[in-house]
DNA sequence: CAGACGTGGTG
DNA sequence: TCACCAAGTCT
């Protein structure tokens, strides 16, 4: 307990917070394709794509995806490898596989409609605590405690008075977020706080001059103290399995037909590591051996 | 629960 | 330039 436990704001402060954030959102919200009253499936697709991936990079892939697979049934009818191919360079291609598996489950277990119950959503591949809440909130205008990296940062600063939230969500943090969800249009609150974190209360250089709740901000009131505690673990990259897997997947993605193993061999010099990565890709279901000497994306014909 | 898992833009 | 960061999930 090195950091002080934040006291929930008074009812008056809470009302002010809600009003100021929601009012700001009404004029500042970006016109994103998945915010235009689209289907729950479209919201779900956007959420999977946005996991750890910036909006700008998601946009074109999302549009092409929805044109091609406007329903879960449409996606489920195609082989998973096509989903992986269409995922392009969004990164974390297992998400494409999970989205395909989720579509299949939605067809099999939910009549082809994205379910609206939290438990049903959580049982779908690729849907965790955040994404389930986001779908409930953004697709169904329901009440949910949405906690993504943006919202967590906004609450950490405004309410708790610290620069960054803890690495993992704490019980106290969840209680706070729950207490902050308003009775009226809770889904707008979720979208508005997320947008505030994305556009104003950013990680690197927050635009406090433009912040609608600067006057209420605990971090500002405290004089912007620097983050205490362990720095975030940097993600290593050069020479990692992740880089190797990425290289292999790029070859498979860009090939129309099965790829001879020799074509994979040339993209990574370390034989041991290359073989290991190819094995894990196959184990993950991202790659399928076609015969003794060639590979392809899963489900290819 | 810490670590694996892609990719590319940017302060 | 080069770490850091981006609407997380799974094990």
Automatic annotation (TrEMBL):
Return the broad EC class: hydrolase
This protein's UniProt keywords? 4Fe-4S, DNA damage, DNA repair, Glycosidase, Hydrolase, Iron, Iron-sulfur, Metal-binding
Record-annotated HhH-GPD domain positions: 49-199
Superkingdom assignment: Bacteria
| CDD domains attached to this UniProt entry | ENDO3c
Note the coiled coil stretches, chain numbering: none
Keyword RNA-binding set for record = no
Identify which cofactors the protein needs according to its UniProt entry.
Answer: [4Fe-4S] cluster
| Enzymatic reactions | Hydrolyzes free adenine bases from 7,8-dihydro-8-oxoguanine:adenine mismatched double-stranded DNA, leaving an apurinic site
Q: Does the keyword Iron apply?
A: yes
Question: What EC number(s) does the entry state?
Answer: 3.2.2.31
Q: Which GO terms describe its biological process?
A: base-excision repair; mismatch repair
Q: Can you name one GO molecular function term for this protein?
A: adenine/guanine mispair binding
Membrane-spanning segments: none
Family that this chain belongs to: Belongs to the Nth/MutY family.
Protein name according to UniProt: Adenine DNA glycosylase
* Source organism of the structure: Aeromicrobium fastidiosum
């Amino acid at each position: 307990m090195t950091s002080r436990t934040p006291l929930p704001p008074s009812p008056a402060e809470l009302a002010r917070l809600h009003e100021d954030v929601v009012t700001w959102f009404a004029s500042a919200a970006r016109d994103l394709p998945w915010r235009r009253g689209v289907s729950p499936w479209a919201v779900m697709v956007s959420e999977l794509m946005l996991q750890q991936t910036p909006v700008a990079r998601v946009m074109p892939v999302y549009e092409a995806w929805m044109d091609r697979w406007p329903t879960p049934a449409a996606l489920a009818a195609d082989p998973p490898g096509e989903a992986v191919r269409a995922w392009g360079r969004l990164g974390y291609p297992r998400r494409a596989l999970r989205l395909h598996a989720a579509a299949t489950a939605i067809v099999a277990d939910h009549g082809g409609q994205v379910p609206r119950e939290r438990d049903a959503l959580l049982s779908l591949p690729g849907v965790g605590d955040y994404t389930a809440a986001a779908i409930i909130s953004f697709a169904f205008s329901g009440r949910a405690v949405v906690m993504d990296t943006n919202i967590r940062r906004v609450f950490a600063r405004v309410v708790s008075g610290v620069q960054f939230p803890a690495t993992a969500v704490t019980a106290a943090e969840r209680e706070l977020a729950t207490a902050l969800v308003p009775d009226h249009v809770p889904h707008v609150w979720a979208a508005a706080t997320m947008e505030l974190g994305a556009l104003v209360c950013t990680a690197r250089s927050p635009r406090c001059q433009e912040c609608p709740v600067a006057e209420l901000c605990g971090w500002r009131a405290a004089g912007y103290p620097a983050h205490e505690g362990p720095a975030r673990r940097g993600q290593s990259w050069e020479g990692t399995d992740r880089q190797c897997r990425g290289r292999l997947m790029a070859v498979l993605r860009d090939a129309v037909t099965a790829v001879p193993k020799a074509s994979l061999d040339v993209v990574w010099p370390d034989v041991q590591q290359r073989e290991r990565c190819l094995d894990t890709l196959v184990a993950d279901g991202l790659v399928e051996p076609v015969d003794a000497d060639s590979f392809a994306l899963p489900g290819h014909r």
